[in-house]
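Hi everyone, sorry if this is the wrong subforum. Our group has a chain we'd like a structural model of before ordering constructs, and none of us has done structure prediction before. Sequence below.
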Amino acid sequence: MNSLSDIIKSRKSIRAFLNKEVDSNLIKDLLTTASHAPSGGNLQPWKIYILNDKSMKKFLDFQVNWKGQENPPYPIYPEKLKEPYRTSRNEMGEEMYSLIDIGREDKVGRLNQMLKNFEFFGAPAGLFCFVDKQMGLPQWSDLGMFLQSFMLLAHESGLDTCAQESWSLKQGCISNFLDTPDDLMLFCGVAIGYKDPNSKINELRSSRRPIEDWATFVD
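Answer:
Right subforum, don't worry. Here is the predicted structure as tokens:
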């Protein structure tokens, strides 16, 4: 991968990882470089907590025994999602389950696959991205640019990632484990590691609608 274009086009979400150690210093370097992403007013609204190796194991054990209440801070998708967004989401889901031979009627299989989100898909490292509750929509855009920068840098370095808004469903558990301040809200998690090249699910590559569908060059 010699160009930014190659890195952007070849990056994808990985949902099965090898049991291979990730260097914490590498993650630190990548996060430091990603912090140069655009940020309105230079607020840099992200607060990042990193799990790796022993701390990842501690968190996963803690999560299994967590009995507290959960109050998700935001809906992951809008209600009554309209077209073409509804079709894009449904098609990707069907492509993924088809790859791993889980039929539409196999509700248990689909549930078990969904629950792998809450194991970071077996990744040895991961992070949680928080934002101050005071922040608004513009700062959420800053978070997106920061996370995209991090994931592209990780891909350039040979690491693989999967951004996971599903972790917002477990903010209570995560905040309790990390002992985060009350003014922080969980935005997402990111699985970090090395992809399992033999896993069928890692063959999934989501399609993109053609530019004519979403861009208008004004005369």
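For your construct planning: The chain is about 35% helix and 15% strand. The longest strand covers residues 184-193.
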